Structure formats: C-alpha cells, structure tokens
C-alpha cells in the first residue's frame, strides 16, 4: 500500500505547479506550493508518503469540528433547524445575500456563514470556554495532545477577516447568533488557525469512516452524527466543486485553503492530504488528483 502511495504522490507532484497558494490571508501566501504529502489511517495500520508530517493550518476543515461538537451538544435536528444542508452553489466565503434576513435554507455548515452560525451553537458560558472545548475535542479526535494555534496566521486572519465580520453581523441581524460577534469570530479565526498535519486529518477521517469510533474502538461521536456529517461532506465539503468531486472521487471529504484535504472511505480508511497549491475554488489541485488516483486504484467510491 505504501508503494502505491509513493507512486501516486510522485505522479501527482507535477500538479503542484498548476495552482496558487492562498493569498487573501497574507500569512498563507508564505506556503511552499511544492510541498505534498499523504497519510492513510486504517484499523489495520497506517501508511504515508511525502511531506505528511509538515504542519499547516486546518482552515475550513475546522468546520467539521464545529459541526461535530454542535451536533453532540444540541442534536442533529436542532442544528438542522438553524442551518440548512443544501449545497449553495456559491463560493465558500460568498457574501452576496440579497435578502435582509438570512434563512437557514440559504446556508450550510461547510460555507463560512453557516460555519460561523454552527460555531456559535457549541455550548459554553462564554467564548473562552467555547474555544477551550473545541481545542480539547480537536485533540481527542486527532489523537494529538500537542495541537496548538499558529499565532501568526491567527493574527493575519483577524486583521483581514472583514468579510467574515460582515457575515457575522448578517447572522446576528437575522437572529442566528447571539452575544458578541467579534468574540465569536475570534474563536472561529483561532480554530481555523490550528496547526495540523496529514496524520491528524487522517485520524479524524478514520473516526468518521468507522461510524464515530476511533482506532481503539471508543465511540467518540454518535453513529448517527458520523452518518450525518459524511452526507454533508459529500454534498458540500469541497466548496462549489463538491459535485465534480463526488463524480470523480466519490467519498466524503473536506478541504481547506491551507492546502489540506480530509477524506474518508466508510468502513475502510481515513485519508489526510497536504498540498497548498489551490485551484480557483480553493481546493488543493494535487490533493484532488491524488484522491482521484487512489479512488481508482483502491475502488474507494461509495457510488
């Protein structure tokens, strides 16, 4: 299996030259677009290739963490009563909402406006506790007790995150979040700035593939929540490229503009990928190519 991983990675390395690193967050523009790594986690073992241990910020993949913890705290039905699950067909950071009031049908948990709302559903007495709970949960699902925030990226996100602030105030105006918008966004920015590597992502993905259980057999999230999350990832996890990804790869996945992709093949494996050169939709170019090749080689598609 590791031989296949290395062969696929080397074959897809050329695609790192076809994309561009994210630049709208200045710190992300410093990434080396030639880095590429992959990690596969299975109950039977682990396999890796390339720059799998390179740390990068989780970015939008944090949206899966918000959704998991919000579902645990409130139940799936309550989450769905606040935030819809339909694909928007818009870029992940779209702000072109024509109505003065945002309805749940307009958004889903995998675009920024929906993720901010879901982040606010994580129960806590204040945003400091909300951040602490999210970090503790992240350490649990990755199996990595040393997770930390990239302070430079966090500061960069805070300084340039005016679009997200606008989305936050739209949500507050619509009664979808309460309390301080800026304090909630501090939590959101910090979580998106969490440093991870391919193994961390693969461990989260393996839990989703294993119906909410980690490799040790501990039920981390309810089976129904894992099924719900996988369904959301299929329909909207790859931004407005989710439909194409479903047809070419065919497994639940979530991407981030830091270059990461977390993907899971139910009942089989979790996959973590890093390659920061992105396409116009914000997805890793080489990362998608690797998943296409692995899906074909190992017959991963759920369809």
Question: How would you explain this protein's 3D organization?
Answer:
There is one protein chain. By secondary structure, the chain is an alpha+beta fold. It is built from twelve helices and seven strands. A five-stranded antiparallel β-sheet has the order 2-1-7-6-5. Strands 3-4 form a two-stranded antiparallel ribbon. Strand 1 and strand 2 form a beta hairpin. The longest helix has 16 residues, at 127-142. The two termini are 23 Å apart.
Features:
303 residues; alpha+beta; Beta-lactamase; two-stranded antiparallel ribbon; Glutaminase; acetylation; glutaminase activity
- In one word, what is the shape? globular
Mind telling me the CATH superfamily name of the largest domain?
DD-peptidase/beta-lactamase superfamily
Level-1 CATH class name of the largest domain:
Alpha Beta
Sheet with most strands: strand arrangement = 2-1-7-6-5
Q: Average pLDDT value?
A: 95
GO molecular function: glutaminase activity
EC number: 3.5.1.2
Subunit structure: Homotetramer.
Protein name: Glutaminase
Quick gist of this model?
Belongs to the glutaminase family. It contains 12 helices and 7 strands.
List the helices and strands and how they pair.
Blueprint: H1 2-12, E1 37-42, E2 45-50, E3 56-57, H2 62-74, H3 76-82, H4 112-119, H5 127-142, H6 151-160, H7 162-173, H8 181-192, E4 195-196, H9 198-209, H10 223-236, H11 242-248, E5 253-255, E6 260-265, E7 269-274, H12 285-298
Antiparallel strand pairs: 1-2, 1-7, 3-4, 5-6, 6-7
Helix pairs in contact: 1-12, 2-3, 2-4, 4-7, 5-8, 6-8
């Amino acid at each position: 299996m590791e031989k296949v991983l290395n062969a696929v990675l080397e074959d897809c390395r050329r695609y790192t030259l076809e994309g561009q690193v994210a630049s709208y967050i200045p710190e992300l523009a410093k990434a080396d677009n030639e880095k590429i790594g992959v990690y596969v986690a299975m109950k039977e073992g682990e396999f890796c290739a390339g720059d799998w241990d390179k740390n990068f910020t989780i970015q939008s993949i944090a949206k899966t963490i918000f959704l998991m913890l919000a579902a645990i705290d409130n139940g799936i039905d309550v989450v769905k009563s606040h935030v819809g699950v339909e694909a928007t067909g818009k870029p992940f950071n779209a702000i072109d909402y024509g109505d003065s009031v945002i309805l749940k049908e307009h958004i889903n948990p995998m675009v920024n406006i929906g993720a901010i709302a879901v982040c606010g559903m994580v129960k806590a007495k204040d945003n400091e506790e909300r951040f602490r709970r999210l970090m503790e949960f992240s350490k649990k699902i990755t199996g990595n007790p040393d997770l930390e925030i990239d302070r430079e990226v966090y500061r960069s996100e805070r300084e340039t995150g005016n679009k997200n602030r606008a989305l936050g105030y739209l949500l507050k105006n619509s009664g979808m979040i309460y309390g301080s918008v800026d304090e909630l966004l501090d939590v959101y920015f910090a979580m998106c700035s969490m440093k991870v590597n391919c193994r961390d992502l693969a461990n989260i993905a393996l839990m989703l593939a294993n119906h909410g259980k980690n490799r040790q057999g501990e039920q981390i999230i309810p089976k129904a929540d894992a099924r719900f999350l996988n369904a959301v990832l299929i329909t909207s996890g790859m931004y407005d490229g989710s439909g194409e990804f479903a047809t070419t790869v065919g497994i639940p996945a979530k991407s981030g503009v830091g270059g990461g992709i977390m993907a899971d093949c139910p009942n089989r494996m979790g996959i973590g990928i890093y390659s920061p050169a992105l396409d116009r939709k914000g997805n890793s170019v080489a990362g998608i190519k690797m998943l296409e090749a692995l899906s074909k080689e190992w017959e991963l598609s759920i369809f």
